[in-house]
TrEMBL record, chain A:
Family membership: Belongs to the complex I subunit 2 family.
Location, primary (coarse class): membrane
Catalytic activity: a quinone + NADH + 5 H(+)(in) = a quinol + NAD(+) + 4 H(+)(out)
Name of this protein: NADH-quinone oxidoreductase subunit N
Residue span, NADH:quinone oxidoreductase/Mrp antiporter transmembrane domain: 156-464
Subunit structure as annotated in this protein's UniProt entry: NDH-1 is composed of 14 different subunits. Subunits NuoA, H, J, K, L, M, N constitute the membrane sector of the complex.
Alphabetically ordered keywords of this record: Cell membrane, Membrane, NAD, Quinone, Translocase, Transmembrane, Transmembrane helix, Transport
Compartments in which it is found: Cell membrane; Endomembrane system; Membrane
Keyword field contains Translocase: yes
Gene name linked to the record: nuoN
UniProtKB/TrEMBL annotation, chain B:
InterPro entries named in the record: NADH_UbQ/plastoQ_OxRdtase_su3, NDAH_ubi_oxred_su3_sf
Keyword annotations from UniProtKB, A to Z: Cell membrane, Membrane, NAD, Quinone, Translocase, Transmembrane, Transmembrane helix, Transport
Stored NCBIfam families: PRK07928.1
Protein location: Cell membrane; Membrane
Top-level taxon in the UniProt lineage: Bacteria
Organism: Isoptericola halotolerans
Protein's recorded name: NADH-quinone oxidoreductase subunit
From TrEMBL, chain D:
Ranges of residues in domain NADH:quinone oxidoreductase/Mrp antiporter transmembrane: 150-448
Family per similarity comment: Belongs to the complex I subunit 4 family.
Annotated transmembrane regions: 6-26, 47-69, 99-120, 132-150, 156-175, 187-209, 240-262, 274-297, 303-325, 332-356, 362-382, 403-426, 438-458, 485-504
Taxonomy of the source species: Bacteria, Bacillati, Actinomycetota, Actinomycetes, Micrococcales
Record's protein name: NADH-quinone oxidoreductase subunit M
From TrEMBL, chain E:
Membrane topology classification: Multi-pass membrane protein
The organism's taxonomic lineage, starting at the top: Bacteria, Bacillati, Actinomycetota, Actinomycetes, Micrococcales
Encoding gene, per UniProt annotation: nuoK
Gene source species: Isoptericola halotolerans
Protein name: NADH-quinone oxidoreductase subunit K
Positions of transmembrane segments: 6-23, 28-48, 60-83
Assembly notes: NDH-1 is composed of 14 different subunits. Subunits NuoA, H, J, K, L, M, N constitute the membrane sector of the complex.
Task of the protein: NDH-1 shuttles electrons from NADH, via FMN and iron-sulfur (Fe-S) centers, to quinones in the respiratory chain. The immediate electron acceptor for the enzyme in this species is believed to be a menaquinone. Couples the redox reaction to proton translocation (for every two electrons transferred, four hydrogen ions are translocated across the cytoplasmic membrane), and thus conserves the redox energy in a proton gradient.
Keyword terms of this UniProt record: Cell membrane, Membrane, NAD, Quinone, Translocase, Transmembrane, Transmembrane helix, Transport
C-alpha cells in the first residue's frame, strides 16, 4: 500500500487558519491567564486574529484573482474570487461584531451572563454576578464560529461543507444561551436554535450522502460532472438520488440563511440571544451561508441539464417570493424591535435569493455587495439595540428595552443614536444614498438581467411593504413623544435625561418645556423606564464604522462595486 | 464463511442463556407477596420519592460525559492511524500530533477550570 | 484467509462455529464458578482463614451451591421499577460479557483429537477484533446504568451514575494504552497481534502502556480498589441493590466474566497471548507453541492475572470517589497520551532510519536537560487548590475567579433548604463519599 | 462660460450652510438643553441668521448661474458637468440645466430665503429646534437643485427618493398640526411606493441600454438621459416603464387619484414646509413627466396621453371643488394645488409648444403664488392666539392687518389667474395649447376658473372682511420681516405677469424640444396668439 | 443480500428520526431523533461506500460521528441548562418566545 502525503498550500488556508488558531489560543488563555486581564487579552487576540484574516484575504487576493482559483487537496478547500470576497465580508463584519460584543456600557457589564451555566435566579448566580465574573469564553467561541463561516463558502467538498456548517453553528448555539438578562429566554433561544439547526444539518447531511451515493465522490463539481456524463459509476436508482440529494442540501443551506419556509427559528433566536450575538449572527452567518448557497447553486446550475436547472430556478423563485412576503408581512406586525429586525433579516434573505436566481455573475456581484451593505446596517442596528435599556424606579439599569413602545421618542434622549439607527433602517429599506439602495438596485438588476423581472417586481413591492415597518420605527423614535410625555406634557423628563441625553431637545409642542423643568424637582423623582447607555467605546466605534460604511457605500459605492465585480467570478466545472 | 457469523452464533447462545436464566428463576422461584419487599430499599426508612427521572445529579457527571465524548472520538481516530502507522509515516504522525494537541487544548482548559476536581 | 488476520478460518463451518461458541460459553461459566471459589479462597488465605471448605473438595462446589441458591430465590420486581428496563438490564450485562471471548485466541491452529480436522483455537477473528472487544465492553455498561436507573431507588441510581462515570473515564485510558499495541503490531486483529509477539511480548517495550492498561482494567471491572459503583459501605450494593435471584446472579456473573475478559485481552495484547514464556518457548524449537500446549499457557496467564485481581482486592482499600476520578483524568489519561506521542515519535524515527543507540542517547540527553532545568527552576508552590490553603475553613465560592467547590478543610455554607448545618468536618473526611452523596441527592 | 461649476456650487453650498447652521451655537446649547435663547454671539438663536445668509449667498450663486446661461440656446443643457460616479452601474454625476430646469432651480433657491425668514419665530421659540429645521431646509434645497439639474436618470432617481427623508422630517418633526406624524408617514409611504415602482422601471430601462460588445458591459454613462433617449424599446416594455415613471411622478405632483396625502400634509406641516414641498418639491413630479417621461418613452406618452388628460381634468375640477368645501385654510390651499397641478399636467400632455411652455411657466408661477398663499396664511395663523387654522375662527382681518389682507388678496387672485398676474399668462397658454389638441378637455376644465374664483374670494371674504373675529382683535399687522417676504412674492407675481417675455424665453425652446421628443408637431403656429393674449 | 436494502433501511431510519423531531415534544427525544437521522446517514454512507468500492464513505461516517458527538455535547449542555432552570425537558414548556 502506497501512501502519498498530500501537499498542502498553507497560504491558501491562512484566512481560516489564523482565526481558528486564535480560537485555540483563546481557549488556552482561558486556562492560564488570570481573570483580571483575561478579557483584555481575549479582546485583543480576537480582534488581531480577525484583522489577520482580513490581511490574509488581501494578500491572497491578487493571486486568486489572477488564477481564478486556488485550492488545497482536490478542492477540499477551494478559493475563488467570490469565496474570497465572502470571506472578506465575513471577516470585516466579524470585527465589527466583536467590537459590539466586547463593549461594556457605563454599567460596566457586557451582555453576557457571569456564569452561563448557572441556574437563573439562584444565589449562586447572584454570587457570580457580585464577584464580577465574566464569561470570556465567548471570544474563542466567536472565533470558532467565524472560522466556520470562513470555511463554509470556501469548499468544493460537501463533507467539509457540512463540517464548516457545524463549526459555525455549534459555537453559536452556545453563544445564544449566554445572555446576562432574560436568561430563560436566552436559553430557550439557544435550545430552539440548536434543535432546529441540528435538524437542518442532519437533512443536509443526508442530502450529501445521497449525492455521494450517486457519484461516488463528495466533490460537488465532480459529482455534477458525472451527472452530465452518463456512463460513470452511477447507481441504477438514479438520478432521483442526486436530485433528492441536491434538494436536501439546498434546504439545509436555506435554513441557515433563514429563508422561508425554513425561517421559523429566526425571530425566536434573534430575540432570545444576547443582542451583540444576534447582530453577529445576523450579519456574518447570513453572509457566509449565502456565500455557500451561491457556490453550491451556481455549481449546480452549471452541471444540471436544462430541465433540472429550470426546476431549480422555479424552486428558488418560490423560496424568494415566499421569503420576501413572510419577512415583510410578518415584520409589519411585530412589537419587539429584535423580532422586527429578525423579520427584516428574513426579508433580506429573500432579496438575496432574488439576486442569484439567474445564476449570473451579475447576481454574484449583487450578492457580495448586498451582504456587505446588509451586514453593516444590521450589525449597526443591533449595536444600537444593546445600548437602549430599561431601568427600574431606582435607576438601576436592567435589560434591553426591546418593546417598541420603549423606543418612542428615543431621538430626544439620544439624537445621535437615533440618527444612526434611522440610517441603518433606511439602508435596510433601500432608500437612496444609503448602501441598501445600491444593494437593492444591484439585486433587482441581476434579477431582470436573468429574465426574472416578475421576481424583481415582487421584490420591489415587498420593499415597499418593508419600508412601512422601518418607517414605523423611525416615526416612533423621532416623532412620537416618549411614553411619559404622552401622559402629561410636563412630565419629569429632565430627571432622567440629565446624565444620559444632555442634548435633549425639549418638546416645544404647545406647552412650555421650561415649566416642566421647574416642576421636576418638586415632584417625586420618577425615572423614565428607558435609558440610553453610553458605550465604553467599542460599540460606538462599531456603530460609527457601520454608519460611515452605510453612507459611503450609498454615496460612493464604486470602489465596493468594482471589488464585488472583480470577485464575482466562478470557476467553471472542470471537465 | 463470513467471520462475523460465529459472533452471531455466540450472540444467539448468550441471548438464550441470559433470557433462560431469568425465565428459569421466575418459574422456579417462590412467590410470596409482601408489600414491604417490593419497596425501594433505603435503609429501612420510607424511600425518597422521585429518585428516578426527577432525581438531579451533580453537574460534574454531565461534564464527565461530555469530556468523554471528546476523548472517545479522539481514540476512534487514533485506531486506524495506529494500524497504518508505518504507511502513513511522517505525515500521519504530524497530523496526529496536531490532532492530539488540539484535543489537549480543551482538556487543559477543563483541567485548569476545575472540571476534573471532584468533591 | 481474511486480509489482516493471521489465523486461518477458511476451514470453519457453521457447525464448527456452534461447537466453538458453546465451548466458549461453557468455559466462561465454569471459569466464573471457579473464579468465585478462587477469589474467596485466596482472600481467605491472605487473611489467614480457611475460606469455603464445606461443599465439595476444598469447597470447590461452593460457587455452584451459591448459583443454585440464587436460582431458587424469589424473583422480585420492585414496585417503582421501570419493568422492562429493569428486566433487561442484567441480561444486557451478561450478554455483552459473554461476547468478548469470540475473538480471543486460546491458541494457534489445533487439530481436533482423533480427526485430522484443523482449526484455530479461537471462535473467530476479523481485522477490527479489538474494536469489537471494546464495543462489547462499552455496551456492557448499559446493563449497569439501566439497572441502576430502572430500579427507581436512590442507591442504585447513584451507583449507576458513578459506574458510568467511572467506566467511561477508565475506558479512555484503556483505549489509549491499546493504541501503542496497534502501532507496534500494525493490526487490530487479535490473532495478528499474538502473531506479532513472536519475538517480544509487548508488555516489555510498552511497559508504560501495559501499566496503564492494568490499572484501567481494574477500574473498568469495578473491582477493588475501584469498586465504587457497588461500594457496600456507601451504596449498599450500588446498582444491584434492588436485584435478587437470577437477575442479581447475572450481574454477578457478568462482573466475573468481565474480569476474565479483560485479563484475556491483556494476555492477548501484551503478554504474548497463547505463546509460551521465554525459557519454555525455546524448548524444542518452539514445540511448546504448537498443538494444544498454547491453551495451557494462555489459561495460566489469564489466571495469573486473575490472581492479581484478587491480590489487589485483598491488599488495597477502596479509593475515595474524587481521588479515583482525579486519578483517571489527571494521571492516567495525560500519561497515556504522552506515552503515545513519545512512542509514535520513536517509531517514526526508527522508520526514518535513526538507530536505537542514537535514540537512546538523544533520550538521555533530553532527560538530563529536563532534570537540570527542573533542578534550576525555583520551587514554586501551586497557589490554589492546595488542601492546606483553606485552613481557615471559610468557603469562597469564587476563589481564583471561577466557581469552585469547597476544598477539603472548607465547609459549605449552611444549606437554607435543609435548615441544618453541615458541621465543619476534619480535613481528611470532609470530602468523604457520604458528603458527596448528600450533594448528589439534592 | 462653463468654466465655473455653478451647478455644483449650488449643490454644495447649501450643505455647507446647513452644517454651519447646525453647528452654530451647538457648543452652548448643549449644557442647558433648550435654554439657548439666552443669546451670545454664536448662540443657537443666531443660527437662523447663518441660515439666512447662507441662503442669500445661494441666491447670489444663482444669479451667477443665470449670467452664465445662454438664453438663445435654452433648449439645450448648459452649465453641464459630467463625472463618473458609479461606472459599474452606469451612473454618473451629470448636471446641467436647460431653461425649464434653470427656472425651477431659481424657484427653489429663491423661495428658501423667504421660507427662512418666514420661519424666523416658528418652532415655539425653541432655537435648537429651529436650527435643525433650517438646516434640514437647506439640505433639502441642495437636493432640489440636484434633482432639477440632473441629467442622469440614476442621479435623478437617487435624489428623488433621498429628498423624501428631509421632507419627511420637515413634515413630521417640525410640523404644527396634531396629526403631523400621520401626515408624514402618509407622505412617505405614498412617495416611496411610487419611487420603488419607478425603481423597477429604472432598472429595466438601464438594461435596455445596449451592451458594449467589446467588454460585455454597459457603458459607464449609460444612465445619461441623452443616452437613454431614443432607445428602441419594446412597446409593451415601454408602456410598463412609462407607467411606472408616471405613477411615481403623479404621486409626487399630486394628481387625482393619488393626491390624498397632500391635504393632510399641508394641514399639518408648517407653512414654510408646505411652501417648499408643494411649490418646489412637487414640481419634481411634473418636471419629471416633462423631462423624463416624454423624451424617454415618446410612444408610450402618446399612447397614454388621453387617459392622462382625463385624469388631469378631473384633478383640476376635483381639487377646485373640494377646496371650496374646506374649513381649514392650509388644507384648502393644498386642494387648490391639486387643481393647479392638473393644469400643469394638462399642459404637458398637450404635446404642443404652447401648452408645454405654458405648463413650464406655470410650474414657476404656481410656486410663487401658492408659496405666497401658504406663507401669508402662515402669518395669519401666527396672529391667532390658538394658532387656529380654521377659516371660521377669523374675520375682518383686513381691518387689523391691512397689509396682510392686501397681499393675501393679491396672492389669492393670482391663484385664480387674474389677468395681469403671472398665473394668468401660463393658464391661458395651457388652455390655448390644449385647445389645439384636446378642445373637449378645455371646455370641461374652464369652469375650474370660476370655481377658483369662488374658493379664493370666499376664503378672503370669510377671513379678512366683515366683523373682526373675537380672537384676532388684537392682531398686529405684518412687521418688516414679514413684509419683506410678502413683498418679494407679490412683486414677483406682478412682474412676471406684466413682463412674462424674458421668463418665457427660458421655456419656449425646451418646450419645442419636448414636442420634438414626443414626435408630435405643433398643430398650428400659436406663438403669435400668445403675444396677443398678453394684456 | 442486496445492498440496496440497507439504503431502504437508512431511509426508513432517517424518516423515523425526522418524524420524531417533528412530532415528539420531549427535548431529549427530539434530540435522539436528530441523532437517529445522523446515524441513518452514516448507514447510507457506509452502504454507498460499499457499493462504490470506495473508502470515502466510511471516512465520511467518521466525520459524521465526530460532528454528532460535538452536537451531543453542545446539545446536552443546553438541554441540561434548560432542564435545571425549569425542571422540564418538554419542548412545549419552552414557550416564552412565542409571541
Amino acid at each position: 500500500m502506497e501512501f502519498e502525503a498530500p501537499v498542502i498550500d498553507w497560504a491558501v488556508l491562512s484566512p481560516v487558519l489564523v482565526v481558528l488558531a486564535a480560537g485555540v489560543v483563546g481557549v488556552l488563555i482561558e486556562a492560564f491567564v488570570p481573570d483580571r486581564v483575561r478579557r483584555a487579552v481575549q479582546v485583543v487576540l480576537t480582534l488581531a486574529a480577525l484583522v489577520g484574516s482580513v490581511v490574509a484575504v488581501a494578500l491572497l487576493w491578487d493571486r486568486v484573482a489572477t488564477d481564478g482559483f486556488a485550492f488545497v487537496v482536490n478542492g477540499t478547500f477551494l478559493l475563488t474570487p467570490f469565496t474570497l470576497g465572502i470571506q472578506a465580508v465575513v471577516a470585516v463584519l466579524a470585527i465589527l461584531g466583536v467590537l459590539v460584543i466586547a463593549d461594556r456600557t457605563r454599567t460596566g457589564d457586557d451582555a453576557f451572563a457571569p456564569t452561563a451555566a448557572a441556574v437563573p435566579g439562584t444565589t449562586y448566580e447572584d454570587a457570580a454576578r457580585e464577584a464580577g465574573l465574566q464569561q470570556t469564553e465567548i471570544y474563542p467561541l466567536v472565533l470558532f464560529a467565524t472560522g466556520g463561516m470562513l470555511l463554509f463558502p470556501a469548499t468544493d467538498n460537501l463533507i467539509v461543507l457540512f463540517i464548516a456548517l457545524e463549526v459555525l453553528s455549534l459555537p453559536l448555539y452556545v453563544l445564544c444561551a449566554t445572555a446576562r438578562r432574560r436568561r430563560l429566554l436566552s436559553q430557550e433561544a439557544a435550545f430552539k436554535y440548536f434543535l432546529l439547526g441540528s435538524f437542518a444539518s442532519a437533512i443536509m447531511l443526508f442530502g450529501i450522502a445521497l449525492v455521494y451515493g450517486f457519484a461516488g465522490t463528495v466533490s460537488l463539481e465532480t459529482a455534477l460532472f458525472r451527472m452530465a456524463q452518463p456512463g460513470g459509476p452511477i447507481l441504477e436508482l438514479m438520478p432521483a438520488l442526486v436530485i433528492a440529494g441536491v434538494l436536501l442540501i439546498t434546504v439545509g443551506l436555506l435554513f441557515k440563511i433563514g429563508a422561508a419556509p425554513f425561517h421559523m427559528w429566526t425571530p425566536d433566536v434573534y430575540q432570545g440571544a444576547p443582542t451583540p450575538i444576534t447582530g453577529f449572527m445576523a450579519a456574518c452567518v447570513k453572509a457566509a451561508a449565502v456565500g455557500a448557497l451561491v457556490r453550491v447553486v451556481f455549481t449546480l446550475s452549471l452541471g444540471l441539464d436544462e430541465e433540472l436547472r429550470r426546476n431549480l430556478e422555479v424552486g428558488l423563485w418560490a423560496v424568494a417570493i415566499l421569503t420576501m412576503l413572510v419577512g415583510t408581512v410578518a415584520g409589519a406586525v411585530q412589537t419587539d424591535v429584535k423580532r422586527l429586525l429578525a423579520y427584516s433579516s428574513i426579508a433580506h434573505a429573500g432579496f438575496l435569493t432574488v439576486a442569484f436566481v439567474g445564476f449570473s455573475e451579475t447576481g454574484a456581484q449583487a450578492v457580495l455587495f448586498y451582504v456587505l451593505a446588509y451586514g453593516l446596517a444590521t450589525l449597526g442596528a443591533f449595536a444600537v439595540v444593546t445600548l437602549v435599556r430599561e431601568q427600574d424606579a431606582d435607576g438601576v439599569v436592567l435589560g434591553e428595552a426591546t418593546h417598541l413602545s420603549h423606543w418612542a421618542g428615543l431621538a430626544r434622549r439620544a439624537p445621535w443614536l437615533a440618527a444612526a439607527f434611522s440610517l441603518f433602517l433606511l439602508s435596510m429599506a433601500g432608500i437612496p444614498l444609503t448602501a441598501g439602495f445600491i444593494a437593492k438596485f444591484g439585486v433587482f438588476s441581476a434579477a431582470v438581467v436573468a429574465g426574472a423581472w416578475p421576481l424583481a417586481v415582487v421584490g420591489v413591492l415587498a420593499s415597499a411593504v418593508a419600508v412601512f415597518f422601518y418607517v414605523r420605527l423611525i416615526v416612533l423614535m423621532v416623532l412620537t413623544p416618549p411614553a411619559e410625555d404622552a401622559e402629561g406634557a410636563q412630565d419629569a423628563e429632565v430627571a432622567t435625561e440629565g446624565q444620559d441625553a444632555p442634548d435633549l431637545a425639549a418638546d416645544g409642542a404647545g406647552s412650555s418645556a421650561a415649566a416642566g423643568r421647574t416642576l421636576a424637582p418638586a415632584r417625586t423623582l420618577r425615572r423614565a423606564p428607558v435609558v440610553v447607555l453610553s458605550s465604553r467605546g467599542f460599540a460606538t466605534v462599531a456603530i460609527v464604522i457601520c454608519a460611515v460604511g452605510v453612507v459611503l457605500l450609498g454615496v460612493v459605492p464604486q470602489l465596493a462595486l468594482d471589488w464585488a465585480g472583480q470577485a464575482a467570478s466562478f470557476r467553471p466545472v472542470q471537465p | 464463511m463470513n467471520p462475523y457469523v460465529p459472533v452471531l452464533v455466540l450472540m444467539g447462545i448468550a441471548a438464550v442463556l441470559a433470557l433462560g436464566g431469568v425465565a428459569a428463576s421466575a418459574v422456579i422461584g417462590p412467590k410470596r407477596y409482601n408489600r414491604a419487599k417490593l419497596d425501594a430499599y433505603e435503609c429501612g426508612i420510607e424511600p425518597t420519592p422521585l429518585a428516578m427521572g426527577g432525581g438531579r445529579l451533580p453537574i460534574k457527571y454531565y461534564l464527565v460525559a461530555m469530556t468523554f465524548i471528546v476523548f472517545d472520538i479522539e481514540v476512534v481516530f487514533l485506531y486506524p492511524w495506529a494500524v497504518d502507522f508505518v504507511v502513513l509515516a511522517g505525515f500521519g504522525l504530524a497530523a496526529m500530533v496536531i490532532f492530539l494537541a488540539l484535543i489537549t487544548v480543551p482538556f487543559v482548559y477543563e483541567w485548569r477550570r476545575g472540571g476534573f476536581d471532584w468533591v | 484467509m481474511i486480509p489482516g488476520v493471521a489465523a486461518d478460518f477458511s476451514a470453519d463451518t457453521i457447525v464448527t462455529s456452534i461447537v466453538k461458541a458453546v465451548l466458549v460459553v461453557v468455559f466462561l461459566l465454569t471459569s466464573v464458578l471457579f473464579a468465585i471459589w478462587f477469589e474467596r479462597k485466596v482472600v481467605a488465605r491472605m487473611q489467614v482463614r480457611p475460606g469455603p471448605n464445606w461443599h465439595g473438595p476444598k469447597g470447590l462446589l461452593q460457587s455452584l451451591a451459591d448459583a443454585m441458591k440464587l436460582l431458587l430465590k424469589e424473583d422480585l420486581t420492585v414496585t417503582r421499577a421501570d419493568r422492562v428496563t429493569y428486566l433487561l438490564a442484567p441480561m444486557i450485562s451478561v450478554f455483552c460479557a459473554l461476547l468478548v471471548f469470540a475473538v480471543i485466541p486460546f491458541g494457534p491452529s489445533v487439530t481436533i483429537p482423533f480427526t485430522d480436522y484443523s482449526t484455530p483455537a479461537q471462535l473467530t477473528d476479523f481485522p477490527v477484533a479489538t474494536l469489537y472487544v471494546l464495543a462489547c465492553a462499552s455496551i456492557g455498561v448499559y446493563g449497569i446504568v439501566l439497572g441502576g436507573w430502572s430500579s427507581g431507588s436512590t442507591y442504585p441510581l447513584l451507583g449507576a451514575v458513578r459506574s458510568t462515570a467511572q467506566v467511561i473515564s477508565y475506558e479512555l485510558a484503556m483505549g489509549l494504552s491499546l493504541v501503542s499495541v496497534f502501532i507496534m503490531a500494525g493490526s487490530m486483529s487479535t490473532s495478528s497481534i499474538v502473531e506479532s509477539q513472536t519475538n517480544l511480548w509487548w508488555f516489555l517495550p510498552l511497559a508504560p502502556a501495559f501499566v496503564v492498561y492494568v490499572i484501567s482494567m481494574v477500574g473498568e471491572t469495578n473491582r477493588l480498589p475501584f469498586d465504587l459503583p457497588e461500594a457496600e459501605g456507601e451504596l449498599v450494593s450500588g446498582y444491584m441493590t434492588e436485584y435478587s435471584s437470577m437477575k442479581f446472579a447475572w450481574f454477578f456473573l457478568a462482573e466475573y466474566i468481565a474480569m476474565i475478559n479483560v485479563s484475556a485481552v491483556a494476555v492477548t495484547l501484551f503478554l504474548g497471548g497463547w505463546r509460551a514464556p521465554w525459557p519454555l518457548s525455546v524448548i524444542g524449537d518452539g514445540v511448546l507453541n504448537t498443538g494444544w500446549w498454547p491453551v495451557l499457557w494462555f489459561l495460566a496467564k489469564v489466571w495469573l492475572l486473575m490472581f492479581f485481581f484478587v491480590w489487589v482486592r485483598g491488599t488495597l482499600l477502596r479509593l475515595r470517589y474524587d481521588q479515583f476520578m482525579v486519578f483517571g483524568w489527571k494521571v492516567l489519561i495525560p500519561f497515556a497520551l504522552g506515552w503515545l506521542v513519545a512512542l509514535a515519535t520513536f517509531q517514526w524515527l526508527g522508520l526514518a532510519g535513526v538507530t536505537r543507540t542514537q535514540m537512546f542517547v538523544a533520550i538521555a540527553a533530553v532527560a538530563l536537560l529536563a532534570a537540570v532545568i527542573v533542578w534550576l527552576l525555583p520551587e514554586r508552590k501551586s497557589p490554589d487548590r492546595s488542601p492546606d490553603d483553606g485552613g481557615d475553613g471559610r468557603f469562597d465560592a469564587f476563589a481564583g475567579g471561577y466557581p469552585v467547590p469547597p476544598l477539603p478543610g472548607q465547609s459549605l455554607p449552611p444549606s437554607p433548604r435543609a435548615r441544618r448545618t453541615v458541621p465543619p468536618a476534619p480535613p481528611e473526611s470532609s470530602g468523604s463519599p457520604a458528603d458527596v452523596d448528600a450533594e448528589e441527592t439534592r | 462660460m462653463s468654466s465655473f461649476p455653478w451647478l455644483t456650487a449650488l449643490v454644495v453650498w447649501p450643505l455647507v450652510a446647513a452644517l454651519a447652521t447646525v453647528l452654530t451655537g451647538a457648543g452652548r446649547g448643549r449644557p442647558a438643553s433648550g435654554a439657548a435663547s439666552g443669546g451670545g454671539a454664536f448662540s443657537a438663536g443666531s443660527a437662523r441668521t447663518v441660515a439666512l445668509v447662507g441662503s442669500l449667498v445661494q441666491v447670489a450663486l444663482l444669479v451667477g448661474a443665470f449670467g452664465a446661461f445662454d438664453t438663445s440656446t435654452a433648449g439645450t443643457h448648459q452649465l453641464t458637468e459630467t463625472y463618473a460616479w458609479i461606472p459599474a452601474l452606469g451612473a454618473s454625476y451629470a448636471v446641467g440645466v436647460d431653461g425649464v430646469s434653470l427656472l425651477l432651480v431659481a424657484l427653489s433657491v429663491g423661495l428658501v430665503p423667504l421660507v427662512i425668514l418666514a420661519a424666523w419665530r416658528e418652532q415655539g421659540g425653541d432655537h435648537v429646534r429651529l436650527r435643525r429645521y433650517l438646516a434640514t431646509v437647506l439640505v433639502l434645497l441642495s437636493f432640489m437643485v440636484v434633482v432639477f439639474a440632473a441629467r442622469d436618470v440614476f442621479l435623478f432617481y437617487v435624489v428623488f427618493e433621498a429628498m423624501l427623508i428631509p421632507a419627511y422630517f420637515l413634515i413630521g418633526g417640525f410640523g404644527q398640526g396634531a396629526q403631523r406624524r400621520y401626515a408624514a408617514v402618509k407622505f412617505l409611504l405614498f412617495s416611496l411606493a411610487g419611487g420603488l415602482v419607478m425603481l423597477a422601471a429604472v432598472v429595466a430601462l438601464y438594461l435596455q441600454v445596449p451592451v458594449d460588445p467589446a467588454t460585455g458591459l454597459r457603458p459607464e454613462d449609460a444612465f445619461l438621459t441623452e443616452n437613454l433617449t431614443g432607445l428602441a424599446l419594446d412597446p409593451t416594455a415601454e408602456r410598463l416603464m412609462f407607467a411606472a415613471f408616471f405613477l411615481a411622478f403623479a404621486i409626487k405632483a399630486p394628481m387625482f387619484p393619488v393626491h390624498t396625502w397632500l391635504p393632510d400634509v399641508t394641514q399639518n406641516a408648517t407653512p414654510g414646509t408646505s411652501t417648499l414641498l408643494i411649490c418646489v418639491l412637487d414640481k419634481v413630479g411634473t418636471f419629471g413627466m416633462l423631462t423624463l417621461c416624454l423624451p424617454l418613452f415618446p410612444q408610450a406618452s402618446r399612447w397614454a396621453a388621453p387617459a392622462i388628460i382625463v385624469l388631469a381634468v378631473i384633478s383640476i375640477l376635483y381639487g377646485a371643488i373640494l377646496a371650496i368645501g374646506q374649513t381649514d385654510v392650509l388644507r384648502l390651499i393644498g386642494y387648490t394645488s391639486v387643481s393647479h397641478f392638473g393644469f400643469i399636467i394638462l399642459g404637458i400632455f398637450t404635446f404642443t409648444s404652447l401648452g408645454i411652455s405654458g405648463a413650464s411657466f406655470m410650474m414657476l408661477n404656481h410656486g410663487i403664488s401658492t408659496g405666497a398663499l401658504f406663507l401669508l396664511a402662515g402669518f395669519t395663523i401666527a396672529r391667532h392666539p390658538r394658532r387656529s387654522q380654521q377659516i371660521a375662527d377669523y374675520g375682518g382681518m383686513r381691518k387689523v392687518a391691512p397689509v396682510l389682507g392686501g397681499t393675501f388678496l393679491v396672492a389669492g387672485l393670482s391663484a385664480l389667474a387674474l389677468p395681469g398676474l403671472a398665473t394668468f399668462v401660463s393658464e391661458i397658454m395651457v388652455f390655448l395649447g390644449a385647445y389645439a389638441r384636446w378642445p373637449a378637455a378645455v371646455l370641461v376644465a374652464v369652469p375650474a376658473v370660476v370655481l377658483a374664483a369662488v374658493y379664493v374670494l370666499l376664503t378672503y371674504q370669510r377671513m379678512f372682511t366683515g366683523e373682526v373675529g373675537a380672537e384676532v382683535v388684537g392682531a398686529k399687522d405684518l412687521d418688516v420681516r414679514e413684509k419683506t417676504v410678502a413683498g418679494v412674492l407679490v412683486a414677483a407675481l406682478v412682474v412676471l405677469g406684466l413682463v412674462p417675455g424674458p421668463a418665457l424665453d427660458y421655456v419656449r425652446e425646451p418646450a419645442g424640444v419636448s414636442v420634438e421628443h414626443v414626435g408630435e408637431t405643433d398643430p398650428e403656429p400659436v406663438l403669435g396668439a400668445l403675444e396677443g393674449s398678453e394684456q | 443480500m442486496d445492498l440496496v436494502n440497507y439504503l431502504y433501511l437508512a431511509s426508513i431510519l432517517f424518516a423515523l428520526g425526522a418524524t420524531t423531531v417533528l412530532l415528539r415534544r420531549n427535548a431529549i427525544v427530539v434530540f435522539m431523533g436528530i441523532e437517529l437521522m445522523l446515524n441513518a446517514t452514516n448507514l447510507a454512507l457506509v452502504t454507498f461506500a460499499r457499493m462504490h468500492g470506495d473508502i470515502t464513505g466510511q471516512v465520511l461516517a467518521f466525520f459524521v460521528m465526530v460532528v454528532a458527538a460535538a452536537e451531543v455535547v453542545v446539545g446536552l449542555a443546553i438541554i441540561v441548562t434548560i432542564f435545571r432552570a425549569r425542571r422540564s425537558a418538554s419542548v412545549d414548556d419552552v414557550n416564552l418566545l412565542k409571541s
